[in-house]
Amino acid sequence: MNEITQNLLKLVSDWKGSFSGAYNIRENGCGIDRKSSKNIKIESKQDKPGLDIRIAPGTKGETVYIPACVTHGGVDDLVYNDFYVGAGADVLIIAGCGVHTENGEPARHNGIHRFFLEEGSRVKYQEKHIGTGGIGIKSIDPVTDIHLGKDSVLEMDTVQIGGVDKTLRETTAVAEEGARLIIRERLLTDGEQTADTIFKVELNGKNSGADIVSRSVARGASRQTYTSDIVGNAPCTGHSECDAIIADTAFVDAAPKLSARDPDAELIHEAAIGKIAGEQILKLRTLGLTEEEAEAKIIEGFLS
Amino acid sequence: MLCLEDISWIAPDGRTVLNGLNLEIPDGKLTVITGPNGSGKTTLARIIAGIENPTSGRILLDGKDITGMDVTERARYGVSFAFQQPVRFKGITVRSLLETAAGGKQEDRKLCSILGDVGLCSKDYLDREVNATLSGGEIKRVEIATVLARNSRLAVFDEPEAGIDLWSFKSLIGVFKRMHESLNGTLVIISHQERILRIADEIVLLADGAIKAQGESKKMMTQVLSSGSVKAACCREEALFNE
Predict the structure, then answer these.
(1) Hey, are the CB atoms on A297 and B101 less than 8 Å from each other?
(2) Is the residue at B216 inside a domain?
(3) Which residues of A touch B51 (CB under 8 A)?
(4) Are B196 and B203 a contacting pair, CB within 8 Å?
(5) Three-state SS across A156-172?
(6) Residue A292, domain member (yes or no)
(7) Interchain CB contact of B11 with A (< 8 Å)
(8) Distances A94 to A12, A107, A249, B12, B52 between C-alpha atoms, Å
(9) Of residues A294, A132, A159, the one with CA closest to residue A217
(10) Cβ contacts of A285 on chain B, cutoff 8 Å
(11) Which chain A residue has its CA at the smallest distance from B149's CA?
(12) Looking at the domain assignment, is residue B107 inside a domain?
């Protein structure tokens, strides 16, 4: 494992020289280290690049790490990872991605992750994306496809707070009876960066629910788009919220869409875009912060 | 001592709001500034905090001319300000705001004590965001707590009673009474409320952008109540406060 990979691992997946639990580390398109546990089996796919991760029913309190790193330009990494989560399991999945370039050539990671949650299972899914290094377009294009079985819960925490030049983030989900999807997304773009986020959730089961909250900051001349579509096909609850702070000449487009296909579908969306309120800066200045410190504090809190 | 010398302020629309105002606010006391709507009370408070700059005149704090200091510099010099309409922050917790006010990380014990002083249970509030989920009474108390956390030599409160219900108002009076009893610095409250005037050491009556009268609370009470600018405590309020 090279030094850049070790650095990226620290940034995206709490790497402290080793992982405890099941893991697979991917570097420039190749698996470089892997360990399964008694309850969590990680195996290579036979037909395409990627992994099948099988979590035994009833597994509790275990963690799976599947970080991916691209450490130089000229790499276009595509990987398919499928997670099969057994009934009643309760696990944490950490899937960070770091892309590093220095030689001016572009580098990209495209991770296609599918989740199949069986009845009553719970997954906390953390995804942290970062770009480091110098010249060279760094792209991360994650695709997340979630199948929520009866009474299962998936909580997705996805963060991208620096260095990624281009990102297209697509998340789709289907929820059966009593299943819940909770998504928290935080994004920061600067310079000429672009970020496009698309969520599509189908609530098919009775009492299923989705709660999607995206907070983003767009600075410099960066550009972001946010699209969400929650379809209520049964008595269900859905909430989508997009909050964005814009500065400089950046712009943000938000298009939250709701589709109610059942009279008992309760769907709500909220979207707010604007610059930092002058009153907020003023309040923090009365506490002794400078204008720059106040702005940094507001953004740090907003994206925390 | 806070001294305002010949302070004038002309609004962007050309209206003269403060007109050659001279005022001395004594150290270690609770001074309430009152007066009719439009008399310039809030402008005066904002000028003390550095949020507005006077068109002319000087502001001296303990002999030092602070007129040229901006909001941040005045805060660092020891001026605190509680807004009439406290601002909300998505994502910033009560803990984080209080620590910012106090100038760095604080022990839970210290933060609990500050929240306790404003009648909030720290367990329920420390990790709550200062966002729209806080009620008018709660956000007001958090605002006051940020001023308490600063422990500064001069604290200015702009109409702390604005926008809160009678019950919250009653406990707010309790907060100011306690602050007054354990006073380290000088307190200035802008208010219309008889209940707040009653806990003052000094009362300043403002009219048409200048000081109309100033003196000890007891001596001033009759004059300010008859001036029509103060909201006298109503019978419901009296009943609630006498419970």
Answers:
(1) no
(2) yes
(3) 282, 286
(4) no
(5) EEEEECCCCCEEEEEEE
(6) no
(7) no
(8) 9, 22, 34, 55, 50
(9) A159
(10) 70-72, 75
(11) A287
(12) no
Give the Cα separation of A255 and B92 in Å (integer).
26
Q: Which among A243, A287, A302 has CB closest to B100?
A: A287
pLDDT for B241 = 67
B94 found inside a domain: no
Alpha helix (H) residue ranges in B67-212: 71-77, 94-102, 108-117, 122-125, 136-150, 166-181, 194-197
pTM of this structure:
0.87
Residue numbers in A near B71 (CB within 8 A): 282, 285-286
pLDDT in tens, A126-175: 999 999 988 889 999 999 999 999 999 999 999 998 889 999 999 999 99
- Please judge whether A286 and B93 are an interchain contact, meaning their C-beta atoms are less than 8 angstroms apart: no
- Which domain does B201 fall in, by range? 2-86+150-241
pLDDT digits (tens, 9 = 90+) for A63-76: 999 999 999 898 89
Provide the pairing of β-strand B56-61 with B2-10: antiparallel
| Integer Cα distance of A48 and B12 in angstroms | 68
The total of structural domains in chain A comes to 1
B51 touches chain A (CB under 8 A): yes
Closest in B83, B90, B93 to A283, CB measured: B83
> Considering only CB atoms, which residues of chain A are within 8 Å of chain B?
215, 243, 277, 279-280, 282-291, 297-298, 301-304
Which residues on neighbouring strands pair with residue B216, listed in sequence order?
Answer: B202
The percentage of residues in chain A with a pLDDT greater than 70, rounded to a whole number, is: 100
Q: Report CB contact under 8 Å: B90, A302.
A: yes
Which range marks the domain in which residue A101 is found?
Answer: 3-279
Do A110 and A77 touch, CB atoms closer than 8 A?
A: yes
In a domain, A203, yes or no: yes
Quick check: B163 pLDDT over 90?
no
Q: Is residue A294 part of a domain?
A: no
CATH number of the domain where residue B204 is located: 3.40.50.300
Domain count, chain B: 1
The answer to whether A284 contacts B76, with C-beta atoms less than 8 Å apart, is no
Quick check: is B97 in a domain?
no
Residue A23, pLDDT score:
95
CA distance B196 to chain A (A): 24
d(CA A226, CA A242): 8
- Tell me whether residues B91 and A291 touch, CB distance under 8 A: no
